[in-house]
Amino acid sequence: MIKQKICAFIATRIMGWKLVGKPIPVPKCIILGVPHTSMWDFVISFLFYTGIGGKAKVLVKSDVFVWPLRDLLHWAGAVPVDRGKGAAFTRHTIEAIRKLDTIHLAIAPEGTRKATKNWKAGFHTLSRALDIPVYYGYFDWGRKEIGVAEQVLITDDVKADMQRIKQWYIDKGVIGKHPERFDPH
């Protein structure tokens, strides 16, 4: 409770963000984090989700887990991953999540902080394989608003789902910390 209040205070009063939504009410889910244009997105999203009473995990490339960041990243819910494993990584992640009772996994579908048109569909694969819901999450640096919104409809058509998801963010009008790095079109 103290950690929650401190995180909410830092996010709202010190950093000036508006926190929108409540923790996802299911034991396992994926929360999309868009637009991902800065390392600060991790900090803001940690403060947000902890500040509203949630606890999320996020996959972070393993080479960032060096002293003095390693312990802080673990404390904040970061899980080190080797992104070079491809399909083996996805299978490993599916098996690891199956063993857990609860996990709210935050994923940036852009897969990078650079501008990219090709979003990663790993979250889609995880959702379908594990039968867990996906929710829209966003950090809008233009309005200084961060939140979680409704559940994403996941179907068998990955391409159509990705287009619909991108359109949701376009319609929402979110702006990244570095706007030139976000191109959902």
Give your account of this protein's structure.
The chain is α/β, with parallel strands linked by helices and 185 residues long. Helix content is 37%, strand content 20%. The chain has helices at residues 2-14, 40-51, 69-75, 87-98, 122-130, 158-172, and strands at 18-20, 28-32, 57-61, 78-81, 103-107, 134-140, 145-152. Strands 1-7-6-2-5-3-4 form a seven-stranded mixed β-sheet. α3 links the parallel β3 and β4 (78-81). α4 packs parallel to α5. It is globular, with a radius of gyration of 16 Å. The termini are far apart. The mean pLDDT is 90.
Shape: globular
Question: How many DSSP H or I helices?
Answer: 6
For the record, give the distance between the C-alpha atoms at the N and C termini, rounded to a whole number. Answer: 40 Å
- The topology string of helices and strands comes to HEEHEHEHEHEEH
Do you know the CATH architecture? Answer: 3-Layer(aba) Sandwich
CATH fold annotation: Fructose Permease
Class computed from helices, strands and strand pairing = alpha/beta
Helix content: 25-40%
Strand content: 15-25%
Major sheet: arrangement of strands: 1-7-6-2-5-3-4
Mean pLDDT: 90
Number of individual domains:
1
What is the CATH domain class? Alpha Beta
Total beta-strand segments? 7
Rg from Cα: 16 Å
Largest sheet: 7 strands, mixed
Please mark out the parts with pLDDT under 50 across 5 or more consecutive residues, or reply none: none
Helix-strand blueprint:
Elements: H1 2-14, E1 18-20, E2 28-32, H2 40-51, E3 57-61, H3 69-75, E4 78-81, H4 87-98, E5 103-107, H5 122-130, E6 134-140, E7 145-152, H6 158-172
Helix pairs in contact: 1-2, 4-5
